[in-house]
Amino acid sequence: MLVLEIIKNTRSAGTELRRVVLLALTLVLLLVVARVQAQTSTQTVLYSAGAPVLAQTCGGLGCSGLGVQVGTTTSIANLSLAARVAVPVVGAVARVRLQLSGTATGGYRAGMLLTNGSTVLGLQALGAVTLRTYLSTSDNSTPTTALDTKVVDISAAQLKLLADTGQPMQLEMLTTAGKDFNQVEIEFGSVLNAGTFINIKYAYGITANQSRTVPGYISRVGGSQIVTGCAEAIQNADRAVDADLTNFATMASLATVNCSAQLKVKLDGTAPGTYKAGFVVGNANNLLDVGLLNSGVTLRTYDADGKELESSSSSSLLGLNLLPDGRSLVSFQATKPFSYVSIERTGAVTVLDNMQLYYGLGVASTTVAPRVLSNFADGSNYYSTSQNGLLCVGSCGVTNPQNAAGSNNNSAATVNTTVGVGNSTTLRLDLNGASANVTDPPGRAGNRAGVVIGNSSILDVDLLSNATITTYKADGTLLETATGSSLLTLNVLPDGRRTVSFNTTQDFSKVGITFTNLVSAASNTDVYYAFADDSNGQLSITNPAGPLPVTLTSFAVRRVASSGAALVTWATASEVNSASFVVERSANPIDGFVAVGQVAAAGSSTTPRNYSLPDNGAALQTVTLYYRLRQLDTDGTAHLSPVAVLAAGLAKASFSIYPNPATGSTQQVTINATADLSAGYSVSVYSTMGQLLSTRVVSSEGAAAPLTVPTTGLATGVYHVVLRDAMGQSLSTQRLQVAN
After folding, report:
1. Portions of the chain given CATH number 2.60.120
2. pTM, to two decimals
3. Which of 172-181, 359-368, 558-567, 694-703 has the highest mean pLDDT?
């Protein structure tokens, strides 16, 4: 079963604090996303092998093998059917236990993949479903003592999914570390009516995707907290800095306290300027969503003396993660070292009433796991659509479906679901393993599979119960489906986009998303791309050990007016064992960054230092560009900076020549420019030896007319034609061939 996020803290009395805080990643919320060159799978995957070791129905008269039909040797081997269970009527239970092909380590995911085995499925009154793990030995093939047991809560959304014939759905649990297992058992409670069957395709034990450890600080030190403004507007402020991570302060409702206040908490260390600053918050009704970013929340950072440094209240700068039990992480990227973080209410919307304030924190940015996306140079042949389960020849129900499979991850397809009970629309996208140099299939068993969607008319609280994620083989064969909050993960990105995903159990090549209408109104949802990765969506945040290698005091980029190139500048207050800085650039951070240059660092220094690096390649780019630093220690350890943004530049003119080659009878060639040439632009012709042969300058009267260059007198051979702007800056060069 998936969780949106897990937060955990441990401390020992009388010893140095030790904490682990697990925070869910989004595609761009806490991180600067790094595109990698290979997709690898580190998961160990164990499937059930052979007939069930236990298959029985138990009631008041004892247990028997009646009610469980074992699959064939072939169906068991190809994971299509291990057993078919007749769910018993009231007063009985059915159990099936499957042997895995090996022993799974405690901490693995354990579960089974199920499908509907009935023409009419009566699961609405299904009793408890229980999962158990066991460890068999040569002396005891069917142990009776379970290692892990979990009663699975099947939601209404999952029942609806399971009621659709052929839709495979996981039921799983995360096992306990140290409790290795090689058998998985499922027990079905009773239904009211006979004739309900469930197919068990297979059992599995799969490595749980691992979190990534990064340094960070939180306010759980039993230290100071400061409330300014109306003191009664922040209730139990001391709970935001005590030792219990489940305690919280409360931002009072304006209905009871008609004034606002600010809560400032001290972190258990000074976070560097490369960290994110934020608060973990919650709400009793679990309805915090992306609207929180637009509702009047302001975050601020302070130095060790309490002096304010930076603040953010813009929805384009604040980020939000949805966490378990109504919690959320709201944060922004700092640029200066900070020791305090504050949160305050500046709006009157009710979403902020009684908001729970758990603790403040500062956390380092990092990179995510390798990812494969649905990004093809031309997405026209890498998608399919369907409505109400029927495959469409065209793009019915989806506007511009090719966008979600194309190379621009900011260009979306729009899924349109019309009014009507049960109406559904599906967009299925191929994953481009070739773009990441991976072998087929690009999605590996245990990977996360999901899509990135845009702002939707579907409310956050309803999205997970009305969206279904499905994985497929390369030939389109359906593999797995997930719906509902107990299986799907929903995260909100800083720009309001969301990721919806689940952990898989089989290799896959395609990912689909299906939206079912909310009955009362039509809905439109933007879908940007599908993805597969081996992240569990979590960071393990620990106290930094020793001094940080570099204290970065500034990082910026600007465009040089004369050339259009970018100039990247940064400064450090101190450096420890710092080897070099690599400047990296991206036109779309979610696609990753590429190195554009490297500068040697100072090694170890306690004095301020300034650095710069020009990026001439930026002059050829007309889109917004994103830059970051990869600081390398002498031992090879890398640290990433925040991202600096360079605004889009003006389109630079390029040109073609016609005719080319030019013949001896040609009197002139025409310059076809990609943009209107302003007065003062010039075209010059050079020999291969660099000798200037002629220059033609654009006049104010002829700026809009096609420019011609005379070729009379040019001997047979190759020439270089150079286009320059009014400042004399070279914009583009083409070869001109003169033939007999």
Report:
1. 21-34+214-364, 45-206, 371-536
2. 0.58
3. 172-181
